[in-house]
Predict the 3D structure of the following.
Amino acid sequence: MAIHEAITRRDFMNGVGMGTAALLAGVPQTQAAPGMQGASDAFEPDLALELIARPRNASLRPGRTTSVWSYQSRMLKGDPTSVQALPDSYLGPILRLRRGQKVRIDFINRLDQPSTVHWHGLHVPDTMDGHPRFAIGPGERYRYEFEVRNRAGTYWYHPHPHGHTGEQVYFGLAGLLLVSDGEEQTLPLPRGQYDVPIVIQDRSFDDDNQFRYLGDTGPTARGNASGAPSAPGNAMGGRGMMGGMMSRGAMMSGGMGGMMARMMGFLGDTILVNGRPDASIEVATHPYRLRILNGSNSRIYKLAWQDGRPLTVIGTDGGLLERPVHKDYVMLAPAERVELWADFSKDDLGTQLTLMSLAFEGSMGGMMGMMDGGPMAAMMDNSSLAAGAQFPIFKVNVARKTNAKLELPNRLSAISWPRLQDAVNRAKPRTFRITMAQMQWGFNGRSFEMMAVAPNEVVKLGTTEVWEFANDSGMMTMAHPIHVHDQQFQVLERRHGAASGGVRDGYVDQGWKDTVLVMPGDRVKLLMRFADYPGLYLYHCHMLEHEDLGLMRNYRIET
Ligand code: C2O
Ligand code: CU
């Protein structure tokens, strides 16, 4: 802790990247943490930048601008093309990093609530991982320093403060982080204009073009400056379950409806791609690399081309597959990524294609038999675009002819998987049961506590383990995308419950994953190796309302 503080203070004195006003206004400090590491005097960054989270207005629809929170960056050192701002979007800049690169990112919080930045999918020391225990307050800064150790792939970054991750992501804080490496560079993959990032999110707008989320939240919230608009980990925002149920006023977004939306996950009724509604892209008759991130808070997509052509998948969360896989549809849960090889070279000019989300069932599971119709279901339906509805995501217009050719490679990458026989617990996998008790989601009955680690949440550095996530118990089940920090894991096995019929051909388990969709009734076994860094990391559901409600726990990697 001392090291980190000292460094922050030293640069503060040097005034790195800070104007006089900022020097006077913000006392830079990071929170004390046991075992602080990573940031050290020896760290010589190849790339240094500031990343500022702040309110601003974005012109997303005709008429009034939308108040959003947005990441904005300023290069301090390194190749300026490493950072690519997205015009007309609230999304943060695309960070383009190389494996082996040393990166320093000074995060500056200009929100009116605490925040951190999590580098989703990256393998970094625990002090650099954006854990909520390192949240910094308004006006403060936190120095993230890490070496990029991941394979080439499509990763992303977003806030991770306790109880407000859903709110901060929803109002705009998220960005892509693309890693390249030597192996990927030598492959004949679509590059430049043919390499297209696609961030899919769902939002709801009010009549005034403002984002509508739960209760009094976001940049224009009245309650924000004075503190938390919704008590973290408390479904009723402090009102209590019965109080909320009884009060008619509380049936509105802040009360029972809001509580149910938190419990079930918030669904917007408008699909945005890279922050734009009604998205379309003009393409040439050429193969494209579409890097798709589901950046939604809670919506699951069943991706398919509307004309029935198969999806050619070349990558997942942790980079390129060993070889391409063809799918009729791909399930993409919050935080998951999939990379498609989309070849339009045989399409006629003028062809219009739509990437759809197809209808599917079962993600809402069941709750005491009350989910099908009735007042309870109506209350939970916080969106006119229900979970599992069919809708278009974006359009592709084949608008240009090119003679340039590119063939889909048969081999994309080499993956050295961990070996099951090396797993120390292969005979008895560590099981995490997703539970719901007293209107609280949990793993094995436990909800998030900032520093707590249960006995079954301690692993040993340098070992390989099988983790099993079981979503088949309790009186309420629904789909949960499970994310484990610091890891890319292998999906070893899925045991399907009855609910997952229309989705089960849509999993891409052939590549590295950091987030895995566990449908109601399902059990999923993961193989992972705890390498390089000891410390306290998170595992959680990536439906952000579930995460904020406590469906998140620490695990500790011990030496
Ligand atoms: Cu993308 Cu812990 O999250
Ligand atoms: Cu969940």
